[in-house]
Write a structure and sequence with these properties.
seven-stranded antiparallel sheet, binds 2-deoxy-6-O-sulfo-2-(sulfoamino)-alpha-D-glucopyranose, 22% strand, single chain, binds calcium ion, alpha+beta, 25 strands
C-alpha cells in the first residue's frame, strides 16, 4: 500500500519533470550560409523543411559566430566561452574535454544526452550518454563513425545516416526523462558531394551569380587580396569540381588524388552513378575549356549546384526529424534549433570558404521552434552569437546559467519576441588560424547593428570600417574617410571595452606571437645538417637564438623550423673555441592535426676535435594520453665537459598513436633551435 503510493508519487514527479523540462534537439550543418536558406530570402534555392521551423517558431536575422571556423565554433557552442578561454583557437587544437560544458550540466541534471554526427574536436566527447561521431571531417559516402569509442563502418550517405542514428536513438531513449541531442551534419562542407538522388537537381538551370563575383577589393586591405580561397585561383577542378580527367594544367596532383581516394571508398554502384552524372558536362568542358571570366562563371555554377544539392539532403533529413516529432507528439515539448557552424562564401567577392568577419561567412542561419511557447512565424533582429547557445540550453532546461559562461540566454527573446532593453549592442569577433590553409589573416573586430570595424594583424596591420546600412556588401572601406571619424572613434572605444569584457587583450596575444630569444654558447655558430630538411618549412637556422614561445595564441604557427620524417635530424654544432658545456637543449614542436610529434628519442654526442664522438645521453619524449599541440625543450644536463663539437640525432616518432590523424604512420619532427649552455 505504502509502497505503491510512493511509486505513484515517483511516477508523477517523473512525468511532471519530463513534461516541464523541454527536450532540446540542436541541429547544426557545416558551412551552411544563410544566403542558401529559403526563409532567409535565398535567391538560389528552396529549403521547405528548414522554412517549417521558421513558420513554427523564430528566425534570427542577426546571428553570428565569434570565430568563423569549425572546431572553435563547436567548442564555443558547448562551453559558452570564447576561443581563448575554452582553448580551441583554431582547427588544430584538441578540445580539453575535462572542462564544464552545457551537455555535462544537462546530463548531471537528469537529461539523456547524445551527440551524433560531425564532432571535430579531436578528443573524445564528454558529457554524452551516447555519441556516434564522424572521424575528423568525415566522408560523404560510406563514412566511418566512432560509437562510444568503437569504430563502425557503414554504407550510405552521411546526411541520411546521421539522421537514421538520431532517430534510432530517440526511439530507444527513456521516454520519462527529457533529452538533449546534438545532431551535427557534415554537409554541405567542401568537397560538396551530393547524394545520388540529387545529382541531377539543377541540371538544366543556371543559378544566379552573386553581385560581387568579380570584386576587385579596391578599398580594402591586403588581407582581402592575399587570401587563398578564390574560385579563380584556388578552387580545384578535379577535387572540388569533379572534372577528374587529369588534363587541366596547373592543378594540384594531390588534390586529384584525393578525389580518386574518395572514389575508392564508394561502392561500384555509387561510383558509377556519381561519375555518370557529371560525364556529359565534363566532355563539353574538355572539348572547349573556358578561360578567364568564363572559367570563373563555369566554376561558380559547378560549385554552387553541388553545394545546393548537398543542402537539399540536409533539408529533407531535417524534415524527417520534424515529421518524427510531430507523429510521436514530441513536438510540443521539444525545442528544435537549426543552425550552421558559421556562414560561407557562395562566390561573393569571388570566394568560397569562410574565416573572414565579412557578413557572408560571419553570419549564420538560426531558426528555433517550440510550438506553443515560441511565437510562430516570428523574426528577431537582436545581435545574437553562438556564445549564447550554452546559456540558452541551460536556461531552457531550468538550470542556472553558470556565471563564467560569456554568452546570454536567448530564452527571454524566444518566449516573447521582445529583446530585453539591456541586450548587447555589439558583437566581438576574433579569428586566429593563420598562417594556415586559405591564408586568411588573423583579425578581430566589432559589429553593431550598423557598423563593423576590423583589425587585421600579425604580418599586416590594417583597419577596415564598413557602414552596413549604406554598403551591405562591404565594398567600401571607410576607415580613412573623413566623414566617418566620429563613428571610427566610437567603434574603437567599443572594441577596446569588449576586449576587456572577453579577456582578449592585444598586449596578451600580439606579444605572445613574438619568438622567444636565448643567448647560448652555440648562438650564431655553424650548424651542419647531415640530411637536408624534408619539407620546405625552414626559415632560421637552428642556432639563431630564436625559438617559438609556446602560448595558446601561437601554437598553430610554424615558421623557422627544420622538418624531418624518414631521415633523422642529425646536426653538428661547431662551437669554434673550447667551451665548458653543462646543458644541451633541443626545442621541438608538436601539432597532432598536422602529424607533427615530439621526437621518439634524441641522442646527444660530444667531441673534442670533431672526429670521434662520444654519446653522453639520450632523451625520450613522454607520450601523452591525448597528444596536445605545443612546443617543448628537451634538455640534457651533463657534468662540465670541455668540448668543441656537439652532435644531436633526433628521430621522428615511429608511429602516430591511435585515434589521431594519420594513426600508425611515421610522424613529422619539427625543430627550431639547438642550445648549448
Ligand atoms: C579542409 C578543407 C578546407 C576547409 C577546412 C576547414 N579542405 O581543410 O577548405 O577550410 O577543412 O573546414 S578540404 O580539401 O579538405 O575539403 S572546417 O569546417 O573544418 O573548419
Ligand atoms: Ca565548418
Amino acid at each position: 500500500m505504502r509502497f505503491s503510493f510512493l511509486l505513484s508519487l515517483l511516477l508523477t514527479v517523473q512525468l511532471l519533470s519530463s513534461q516541464t523540462r523541454p527536450n532540446i534537439i540542436f541541429i547544426m550543418a557545416d558551412d551552411h550560409a544563410a544566403q542558401a536558406v529559403g526563409c532567409y530570402g535565398s535567391r538560389i534555392n528552396q529549403t521547405p523543411n528548414l522554412d517549417r521551423i521558421a513558420q513554427n517558431g523564430m528566425l534570427f536575422s542577426h546571428a553570428y559566430c565569434t570565430n568563423s571556423i569549425c572546431s572553435p565554433v563547436r567548442a564555443v557552442n558547448i562551453t559558452g566561452k570564447m576561443s581563448q578561454i575554452n582553448g580551441v583557437l583554431d582547427n588544430m587544437f584538441p578540445f580539453d574535454g575535462s572542462q564544464p560544458t552545457a551537455p555535462k550540466y544537462l546530463q548531471a541534471a537528469g537529461y539523456q544526452t547524445a551527440m551524433i554526427g560531425k564532432w571535430h574536436l579531436k578528443s573524445d566527447p564528454t558529457g554524452f550518454d551516447f555519441w556516434k561521431i564522424l572521424i575528423d571531417q568525415g566522408e560523404y559516402y560510406n563514412p566511418r563513425f566512432i560509437e562510444n569509442g568503437e569504430n563502425i563502418t557503414t554504407e550510405g550517405y552521411a546526411t541520411a545516416l546521421i539522421t537514421d542514428y538520431a532517430l534510432d536513438w530517440l526511439q530507444q531513449r527513456d521516454p520519462n526523462q527529457p533529452f538533449f541531442m546534438m545532431l551535427h551534419h557534415k554537409a554541405p562542407h567542401r568537397n560538396w558531394m551530393p547524394d545520388l538522388p540529387y545529382l541531377h537537381l539543377y541540371d538544366s538551370v543556371s543559378i544566379p551569380e552573386p553581385f560581387t563575383l568579380f570584386d576587385d577589393y579596391k578599398s580594402r586591405s591586403d588581407a582581402a587580396r592575399q587570401q587563398e580561397m578564390s574560385l579563380e585561383k584556388d578552387m580545384n577542378l578535379q577535387y572540388d569540381l569533379k572534372l577528374w580527367q587529369d588534363t587541366m594544367p596547373g592543378q594540384h596532383p594531390w588534390m586529384a588524388q584525393w578525389m580518386e581516394h574518395r572514389f575508392e571508398t564508394m561502392t561500384p554502384t555509387q561510383r558509377e552513378a556519381f561519375k555518370a552524372a557529371y560525364q556529359a558536362e565534363n566532355e563539353v568542358f574538355m572539348a572547349n575549356p573556358p578561360t578567364g571570366k568564363e572559367l570563373v562563371r563555369w566554376k561558380y555554377q559547378r560549385y554552387i549546384k553541388d553545394y545546393l544539392r548537398c543542402i537539399a539532403s540536409v533539408d529533407d533529413n531535417v524534415g524527417r526529424v520534424l515529421d518524427y516529432l510531430k507523429e510521436t507528439g514530441l513536438d510540443s515539448n521539444t525545442i528544435v534549433v537549426y543552425t550552421s557552424d558559421q556562414g560561407f562564401f557562395l562566390g561573393e567577392h569571388g570566394w568560397f570558404d569562410k574565416r573572414f568577419m565579412y557578413e557572408e561567412s560571419y553570419r549564420q542561419p538560426l531558426l528555433v521552434q517550440w510550438p506553443g511557447h515560441i511565437p510562430a512565424n516570428s523574426r528577431n533582429d537582436a545581435l545574437v552569437v553562438n556564445l549564447d547557445f550554452a546559456p540558452t540550453f541551460m536556461d531552457m532546461a531550468g538550470l542556472e546559467v553558470p556565471s563564467d559562461m560569456q554568452g546570454a540566454s536567448l530564452k527571454p527573446i524566444l518566449l516573447s519576441n521582445q529583446t530585453p532593453s539591456d541586450w548587447r549592442q555589439e558583437t566581438y569577433y576574433h579569428y586566429f588560424e593563420y598562417p594556415g590553409i586559405h591564408a586568411v589573416k588573423r583579425h578581430y573586430g566589432v559589429r553593431t547593428q550598423r557598423y563593423k570595424l576590423i583589425h587585421f594583424y600579425f604580418d599586416i596591420d590594417a583597419w577596415e570600417l564598413y557602414d552596413l546600412d549604406e554598403d551591405p556588401e562591404e565594398l567600401r572601406n571607410v576607415y580613412e574617410n573623413p566623414g566617418y571619424q566620429a563613428v571610427r572613434s566610437e567603434m574603437h572605444r567599443k572594441l577596446d571595452s569588449l576586449q576587456i569584457v572577453y579577456q582578449d587583450l592585444p598586449e596578451d596575444f600580439e606579444g605572445a606571437l613574438e619568438p622567444a630569444t636565448l643567448q647560448h654558447i652555440a648562438f650564431a655558430n655553424p650548424c651542419l645538417l647531415k640530411f637536408p630538411p624534408e619539407k620546405p618549412v625552414t626559415g632560421q637556422p637552428l642556432t639563431d637564438g630564436l625559438y617559438q614561445l609556446y602560448s595558446i595564441y601561437n601554437a598553430g604557427i610554424r615558421d623557422g623550423y627544420v622538418a624531418f620524417r624518414k631521415q633523422p635530424l642529425e646536426a653538428v654544432v661547431k662551437l669554434g673555441h673550447w667551451h665548458t658545456v653543462r646543458n644541451i637543449g633541443v626545442h621541438c614542436m608538436q601539432s597532432p592535426e598536422s602529424w607533427i610529434y615530439y621526437p621518439e628519442d634524441i641522442r646527444v654526442l660530444v667531441s673534442k676535435r670533431g672526429k670521434r664522438y662520444k654519446e653522453i645521453g639520450k632523451m625520450a619524449a613522454q607520450p601523452d594520453a591525448i597528444p596536445k599541440p605545443g612546443h617543448q625543450w628537451f634538455r640534457l644536463q651533463t657534468r662540465p665537459r670541455k668540448i668543441r663539437y656537439v652532435k644531436v640525432i633526433a628521430n621522428s616518432r615511429a608511429a602516430i598513436p591511435e585515434h589521431q590523424a594519420g594513426a600508425g604512420q611515421r610522424a613529422w619532427l619539427f625543430c627550431d633551435e639547438i642550445s648549448v649552455e
